[in-house]
Amino acid sequence: MQVKSIAGHELTPGKTVKDHIHVEGTELHVPHVLLCGEQPGPTVLISAGIHNAEYVGIQAAIELSNELDVSALHGNVILLPLANRSGFENRTMSMVYEDGKNLNRVFPGDREGSEADKLAHMLFEVFIRNVDAYIDLHSGDGYEALIPYAYYLGDTPAEETAKAMIACVNTKYYVRSRCRTGGAYNLASVHGVPSVLIERGQLSLFSREEIEADKADVRNILRCLGVLPGEAMRYPKTQLLEYSDDAPCTGCWYPEKKVGEVFRRGEKLGEIRDYFGRSLFVEYAPDDGVLLHQCASLNIIEKGPMVTYGVPTDDII
């Protein structure tokens, strides 16, 4: 039987690889870890740091790469603890340092494009399309307040498996996404790889509790997929329809609600004022919902993130 290879390394049972892969046509190098289980099973990809200031997932992935034991694995676990390394090393928040692009908006990328395009192309061609399931770890950037929740993409060939994976995530809410473009997990799902995105942590902070919660979710999903032994826990959660409103202008932002708060239609969610304190725009809730994440900095930028909220449905996992 032919041995599967990823990133130029054969997935030989019992093998561990820690290496960097070069992104052709750039100076970028991406760290990756291959943990090859001693028993056969699926290959699962775990990525973090696509947004390089979302530190909870980055640290969780680093720790998992040293804690998962290949002798206990049925299959393979591939970890990308820091997909956007240059952004991390230059503290650019969500952007790739070399071209200022948001990496999670350019998938599937372009081999002939700028650095972010080339990086996304490599991540998809080398890793994402060659695995059986995918977990992408995110959190709130330096200006984003956020509550824990998770995404999977609906209406895809892998939806039932992705739905089983998301049931293993210990959050109160989940979103059955409708967005099919731009993001890594979205693209994977469209191509038949069951995928989930976990949001946990905010404001580029990282606590031990949040890191352990991310690690517990990943291990639980691995149990669900049969990669780790034992029975997976299922956590009931409410499905939300997600809506996002970007800022219509630049100015000072004054939110009225905290993330996680439930609000009613017509309630004030926040206000943008100019540098003399005069009102420029007031955001009112168009429907009943729960605030998932929002801009938490005083400055807000035209067409930049302002509020994202969810409207509950009757669907509960």
What report would you give on this structure?
It is globular, with a radius of gyration of 20 Å. The protein has helices at residues 55-67, 85-90, 115-127, 159-166, 184-190, 208-224; strands spanning 5-6, 9-10, 16-22, 29-36, 39-48, 74-80, 133-138, 144-146, 149-153, 173-177, 195-199, 238-246, 251-255, 262-263, 268-273, 279-284, 289-295, 299-300, 305-316. The protein has two domains: 9-224, Aminopeptidase; 239-316, Beta Barrel (OB fold (Dihydrolipoamide Acetyltransferase, E2P)). 20% of the residues lie in helices and 34% in strands. Strand 5 (39-48), helix 1 and strand 6 form a beta-alpha-beta unit. The model has no long low-confidence stretch (mean pLDDT 96). The protein has six helices and 19 strands. Helix 1 packs across helix 6. It is an alpha+beta fold. The strands form three sheets. Strands 3, 4, 5, 6, 7, 8, 9, 10, 11, 12, 14, 17 and 19 form a 13-stranded mixed beta sheet that branches. A four-stranded antiparallel beta sheet has the order 16-15-13-18, with no helix packed on it.
What attributes does this structure have?
single chain; 317 residues; alpha+beta; Aminopeptidase; OB fold (Dihydrolipoamide Acetyltransferase, E2P); 2 domains; 4-stranded antiparallel sheet; 6 helices; 20% helix; 34% strand
Task: Describe the protein's topology.
Blueprint: E1 5-6, E2 9-10, E3 16-22, E4 29-36, E5 39-48, H1 55-67, E6 74-80, H2 85-90, H3 115-127, E7 133-138, E8 144-146, E9 149-153, H4 159-166, E10 173-177, H5 184-190, E11 195-199, H6 208-224, E12 238-246, E13 251-255, E14 262-263, E15 268-273, E16 279-284, E17 289-295, E18 299-300, E19 305-316
Parallel strand pairs: 5-6, 5-7, 7-11, 9-10, 10-12
Antiparallel strand pairs: 1-2, 3-4, 4-6, 8-17, 9-11, 12-19, 13-15, 13-18, 14-17, 15-16, 17-19
Helix pairs in contact: 1-6
